[in-house]
Amino acid sequence: MKRIVLSFFLLSLVLTAATIAASERQADRRTAMPAKAQRIVSLGPLNTENLYLLGAGERVVGDTSYCVRPEAAKHKPKIGSVMQVSIEKIISLHPDLVLATALTRPEQIKQLEKMGVRIVRFKQPASFAEICEQFIELGQLLGLEERARHIVNQAREEVASLQQKLAPLPKKKVFLQVGSRPLFASVTSSFTHDFIALGGGLNIAGTQRTGTMQVEKVIAENPEVIIIAIMGSEAGIAAEEKRNWQRMPILKAAQTGSIHTIDPNLVCSPSPATFVQTLRIIAGLIHPEIDGQKGY
What we know:
Elements: H1 2-21, E1 40-42, H2 45-53, E2 60-62, H3 87-92, E3 97-101, H4 106-114, E4 119-122, H5 128-141, H6 145-166, E5 172-180, E6 183-185, H7 192-197, E7 201-203, H8 215-221, E8 225-228, H9 237-246, H10 252-255, E9 259-261, H11 264-268, H12 272-286
Parallel strand pairs: 1-2, 1-3, 3-4, 5-7, 5-8, 8-9
Antiparallel strand pairs: 5-6
């Protein structure tokens, strides 16, 4: 149950942050920073995962209770949740850099700045391109730009290779479900849309400003593939949602057995590396003929 609640909360954060990111700029993260910060506090899962991917995990002296990847991140001192941090705990860790997110409360950022804490704030990326851009900027902050660019170039090459495989195939209509109550879809203001667009699909919610969907709307769009990335495993709500869609034979996805669930933790906070991993899974679900990995 704890894992289900955690996964649901993380996906909720992605959706909320995507809405915020659509209307804000990133200038606040370009403040001059020490080239090689050695004591870093991360205020969000994506920041934490990127730090470890860069090989800077040993510099992390604190993160949030939602920072669970990689495994080592679970064992760092916790400074609170993504939206509510303990100023006192952060100060006690003596950081020379704090990495904030779009969901970090502005008043807490101001409070830390008044106390002399250096802060860089990254918004929730809206696309694979922004994921890569932010990763390189983080590498620059830490004096690890060369490594960051190498990782990004490798990720871009893998995406381009996958695009070549998908190019001759017809695009299929896809519903990527990221919430159940209310029913919620991936939208273009979120990087999750790129899982569909780069995975050989057409997002049935692509023209919507928000992700809120009605079942009737999904039926009317009649997706050929439904991918469920919400709370838990086959024993949880995701499995229940899958069964609900399977009971609708009017849907092409139900007719062809193309209704799948995947790990929401992969979907909610991808680094360049995990974006590629998740994209391969989703592309394989949309187009099994490319021998992509399957969901569970």
